[in-house]
Amino acid sequence: MRALDGVSFEVMPGEVHALMGENGAGKSTLMKVLGGIHQPNEGRIIVSEKPVVMASPLDAKHKGIVFIHQELSLAKELTVAENIYLGELPRKRFGLVDWQTLFNQTNAILQRLKVSFDAKTKVGDLSIANQQMVEIARALTHEAKAVIFDEPTASLTDAEKVVLFEVIDALKSRGVAIIYISHRMEEIFKITDRISVLRDGQYRGTLETAKTSEEDVTQLMIGRKLDLSRNVRDHEYGEVALEVRGLCCGTLYNDVTFKVRAGEVLGFYGLVGAGRTEIAETLFGLRTPTAGQIFLDGKEVDITSPVDAISQGISLVPEDRKEQGLVLGMNCRDNMTLPQVGDLTAGPFVSDGAEIAIFDQYRDRLEIKTPSWKQLAGNLSGGNQQKIVIGKWLSMRPRVLIVDEPTRGIDVGSKSEIHNLIRDLASQGYAVIVISSEMPEVLHVSDRIVAMYSGRIMREFTSEEVTEDSLVQAISGLNGSDTRAA
């Protein structure tokens, strides 16, 4: 199967043009061709009405095409300035680097992005979000004709997203063509003029953003309708599996109390910094609470490490699957069996047969799409990578499964599969905690929703009583009566 098959695509000066499709549809491959990373077998690239050949990324940049990668491609031991101008450092006589010019040019760009760091900061000392801003800064070093943004907001805070959209608007006003790849529908409908869709490596059509809907785009992407309705409980809950009373962790969160039952999905929703992920990390033994109690099946437990959590029946699917959930250079089977490899030995060796049996079981159960267990995890789509991580922890037979940002960076079709999987796990008796920054997601999968603000639980809602307005008020610190479901 061809990664791209006869794709024709155009973007006009001063236009923000979205490119959408499921994981594996060919979006990133097409952009890598335009960015000089891959060479096409056939077809032409035309810039300003002239056919061009992109021999390399640097060649593409000199011809006016700038690629902001989804995956960070930074040298973490170098400064921000060196990263931004890598391969194009300003020179003085005898080839010496003109450091003053380099830092001045870089700081001028950073001021436009309204970031808190300067040109001399080492990239490795920056947060992931700020490293993404360094990637974006590269687009501003040339008079670009077209800038390709591949999932640019995946690691950005809400405030940083606003700055990014201002930068895109400024580029647009200067006549720069913007190609914007994202799975976030709200962003697509907020900033783009047109939307082109790829499916199975082929061009499927272009829509005017103002004249279409999310449903139309989704159907063009996946060829079917999705169920985007609110969650409706279709099974009974069991006993309380996990209870937390008065849990505190320094300044990160305070007096957190909640319960989750077997067969229930408890959603956690709030703004960045609300404390949701930190609570999950505490339950999994990655953080030490300063006060409070944790109960499993009515018995108080002391969790001081992930080993304790796993032995007590708690598993965590982390927020960043590529950095925290997978070894990308390892095959699917070995990733899935990694937490229990010590129990799968035959004499001094790991039993291949036992590992393959576990992988086969969860590949079938979770409908993981991969040619075989030998496929490297890094070569899978985002949705299938997430299923590998979920399968890894399900194979440990937990009582409580915590899933942090279950569909980050995943296309809408795979999102639907992950949502259905979460609901299915609850119906099988698992107690599931879902942490999400996406309101439609938390409304769709949760039986109850915990709204957090600044380290505190403001409200708890059942799926029947919650409204979007009340949820937004609660996570904003408004109308925050401390209502906790029994």
UniProtKB/TrEMBL annotation:
Name under which the protein is recorded: Sugar ABC transporter ATP-binding protein
Domain ABC transporter: 1-225, 232-479
Entry keywords, A to Z: ATP-binding, Cell membrane, Hydrolase, Membrane, Nucleotide-binding, Protease, Repeat, Sugar transport, Translocase, Transport
PANTHER family with a match to the protein in the record: CARBOHYDRATE TRANSPORT ATP-BINDING PROTEIN MG119-RELATED, D-ALLOSE IMPORT ATP-BINDING PROTEIN ALSA-RELATED
Keyword Thylakoid: no
One of the record's GO molecular function terms: ATP binding
InterPro entries: AAA+_ATPase, ABC_carbohydrate_import_ATPase, ABC_transporter-like_ATP-bd, ABC_transporter-like_CS, P-loop_NTPase
Recorded superkingdom: Bacteria
Pfam families: ABC_tran
CDD domains, alphabetized: ABC_Carb_Monos_I, ABC_Carb_Monos_II
Gene Ontology BP annotations: proteolysis
Taxon lineage: Bacteria, Pseudomonadati, Pseudomonadota, Alphaproteobacteria, Hyphomicrobiales
Membrane-spanning residues: none
Family: Belongs to the ABC transporter superfamily.
Keyword Metal-binding: no
